[in-house]
Design a protein that fits this description.
Strands 1-6-5-4-3-2 form a six-stranded mixed beta sheet, with helices on both faces. It has a single domain, classed as 3-Layer(aba) Sandwich (Restriction Endonuclease). It has 152 residues and is an alpha/beta fold. α5 links the parallel β5 and β6 (144-150). The chain has five helices and six strands; from the N terminus they run βαααβββαβαβ. It starts with a strand and ends with a strand.
């Protein structure tokens, strides 16, 4: 799978030092799925399943006390949220990253959205997340690696 990315607060460097960034990149390279709405199986499910097959936990609780707040994927203090449906849901992801980071449950969050090259109305895109995080830079201390999925 091709992608563009954006690094918020040195997330890629931290992932590299944690020795997990290459694993994530290698998993992404193996994924081959059509992107966009009304695609079956959904790109989100394919991505989640591929990471799960490589040892990532799915539906991981954000904190021990919040059974209803869950990350799509989790491994070794890294949480991944796959947001390919509604751009406004990205705000929930930022808050989950913030909470988990503040209670030392994660070191880095990863937000997977679409690149600007993917066609469709009201899709979560890398530029939107980048703009959001620039605005909330002083509020969100958690390093976040934003991955924008691209069509081939």
């Amino acid at each position: 799978m091709n992608y563009t990315d954006w690094d918020f607060k040195f997330a890629k460097l931290i992932l590299h030092e944690m020795e997990i960034r290459k694993e994530i990149e290698d998993i992404l390279k193996t994924i081959n799925v059509k992107l966009g709405r009304k695609v079956r199986p959904s790109p989100s499910k394919v991505i989640q399943q591929t990471f799960a097959e490589n040892g990532w936990q799915t539906e991981y609780q954000v904190t021990k006390k919040s059974s209803y707040l869950r990350f799509d994927l989790y491994k070794n203090k890294v949480a991944i949220e796959i947001q390919l449906a509604d751009p406004s849901d990205c705000y929930n992801d930022y808050l989950k990253f913030l909470l988990a980071y503040n209670v030392e449950r994660i070191e880095v969050g990863i937000e997977i959205v679409y690149d600007r090259t993917v066609e469709g109305k009201n899709l979560p895109k890398l530029e939107k997340v980048k703009n959001d995080l620039d605005i909330y830079r002083r509020v969100i201390p958690c390093p976040i690696w934003v991955i924008g999925l691209k069509e081939k």
